[in-house]
Amino acid sequence: MLSTEHQHIVKSTVPLLEAGGEALTSHFYDLLLTERADLRGMFNSAHQATGAQARALAGGVLMYAKHIDRLEALGELAGRVVNKHVSLQVQPEHYPVVGEYLLRSIREVLGPDVATPAVIDAWGAAYGQLADMLIAAERDMYATQAATEGGWRGFRPFRVAARIVESAEIVSFHLAPVDGGPVMRPAPGQYIAIQVTVDGAPLRRNYSLSAVSDGTRYRISVKRDPGGVVSGFLHDHVNVGDIVELTAPAGVFQLRDAGRPLVLIAGGVGQTPLMAMLEAAVAQGTRDIRYLHFVRNPEVQAFRERVEQLAAAHPRVRFGFFYDEDPSVPDGLPPGRVSSNVLRDMLPPDRDADVYLVGPGAFMASVLQLLGELGVPPDRCITEFFGPHQEMAIG
Ligand SMILES: Cc1cc2nc3c(=O)[nH]c(=O)nc-3n(C[C@H](O)[C@H](O)[C@H](O)COP(=O)(O)OP(=O)(O)OC[C@H]3O[C@@H](n4cnc5c(N)ncnc54)[C@H](O)[C@@H]3O)c2cc1C
Ligand code: HEM
């Protein structure tokens, strides 16, 4: 437990972090990843380049400082971080390294007048407390994954059993474990991390599972990101019979079995976890399902026929595809743009639905705003983001 004095100092540095938190964590990442090249493959290079990772960590630290005297308020944040860390194999021995670089960055960015020995001391103790909490939760999650039927620890080799071109820019990989054993069944919506070696460097990325697993294999569906290292490698160099390494499924974005109508809203490749949810909900057959896919054009759209088949076979499924490049402009709006009318048409009149949303950040922000205006309660809107969750910075 932190002393009252340490708590006080940490809380009093919140305004400072709010003003300069991102500069601090950017500097921290520069230092860490320049000096500790061995950790670089764990981090997504683009998330660092765009500053998203720095913002996420700044958000985590800031949120922590605000709630230092009631850590239970961090529940949601901690769950996401723990799942992401476990998926990417963050280990207890990494924490002191990160802590050392964080404190060094505080010193170098804030300078000796602000980062006095007392401030550094308080933050050292606070970081230690947060690290202990995350390490304990991560240890539990690693143990649970290993104890689950078909589960495992660390990276497990998987062979590419099938490679299916789904659209002009999305390829699916069906992955079966080389050891021939069962695989743990993920909750619909969860992701794995894949590790591949590109130019001698092992790189890790998360991919959502895009189908319900039958307990023997997984499917991921990867969009080629222009200039993207891992997605480009998977598209160009990974074929049937090749071996990749996977960590066990993780992630707090999971289909809730609430029995309410289900509304799935995808932007682009954000459809992948929603496809697993759609299939699971259809198999369950107990709720009305709406599937909305906003995408540039039919050529880049994956799983169009699969959604049409499911809807044809199951009367409780309704769907809509909305193309940015569709020449028929609905109600005067730019084509494909999410509108209040489109959403209203898919929501139950009493708004009593669970809405799952995945897509690019700006898309998600505008959908969330429209859902709020239409009266969908915020706790019914469940999101996944294919990068560090920036909502975390909202405290
Ligand atoms: C939970 C989760 C689930 C995901 N699920 C999926 C999924 O189902 N399908 C899917 O396709 N993706 C998914 N992703 C995204 C995936 O993890 C990768 O981020 C994505 O494939 C891009 O990785 P990459 O290595 O190809 O690109 P990177 O090499 O990381 O680059 C990404 C982009 O950033 C640009 N970039 C890279 N470095 C720099 C730099 N230094 N400066 C400026 N720009 C730069 C690149 O040109 C490229 O456009 C998911 C991510 C998360 C976190
Ligand atoms: C108290 C310490 C830490 C805090 C508060 C913290 C916080 C965070 C947060 C908020 C995210 C974003 C999660 C998301 O939105 O998906 C994240 C991701 C991540 N963290 Fe940590 N973290 C800590 C320690 C560590 C350590 C010790 C490591 C190991 C090197 C680490 C490695 C990572 C990686 C690899 C990611 C994903 C990055 C990416 O997407 O590129 N973290 N962390």
TrEMBL record:
Cofactor: heme b
GO BP: cellular response to nitrosative stress; nitric oxide catabolic process; response to toxic substance
Source species, domain of life: Bacteria
EC numbers on record: 1.14.12.17
InterPro entries: Cbr1-like_FAD-bd_dom (IPR008333), FAD-bd_FR_type (IPR017927), FNR_nucleotide-bd (IPR039261), Globin (IPR000971), Globin-like_sf (IPR009050), Globin/Proto (IPR012292), OxRdtase_FAD/NAD-bd (IPR001433), Riboflavin_synthase-like_b-brl (IPR017938)
FAD-binding FR-type domain location: 153-256
Catalytic activity: 2 nitric oxide + NADH + 2 O2 = 2 nitrate + NAD(+) + H(+); 2 nitric oxide + NADPH + 2 O2 = 2 nitrate + NADP(+) + H(+)
Enzyme class name: oxidoreductase
Example GO molecular function: nitric oxide dioxygenase NAD(P)H activity
Keyword entries, A-Z: Detoxification, Dioxygenase, Heme, Iron, Metal-binding, NAD, NADP, Oxidoreductase, Oxygen transport, Transport
Globin domain ranges (all copies): 1-139
Family annotation (Gene3D superfamilies): Globins, Nucleotide-binding domain of ferredoxin-NADP reductase (FNR) module, Translation factors
Recorded coiled-coil stretches: none
A Pfam family that the UniProt record links to this protein: Globin
Family: Belongs to the globin family.
Primary role: Is involved in NO detoxification in an aerobic process, termed nitric oxide dioxygenase (NOD) reaction that utilizes O(2) and NAD(P)H to convert NO to nitrate, which protects the bacterium from various noxious nitrogen compounds. Therefore, plays a central role in the inducible response to nitrosative stress.
Protein name per its UniProtKB record: nitric oxide dioxygenase
Lineage: Bacteria, Pseudomonadati, Pseudomonadota, Betaproteobacteria, Burkholderiales
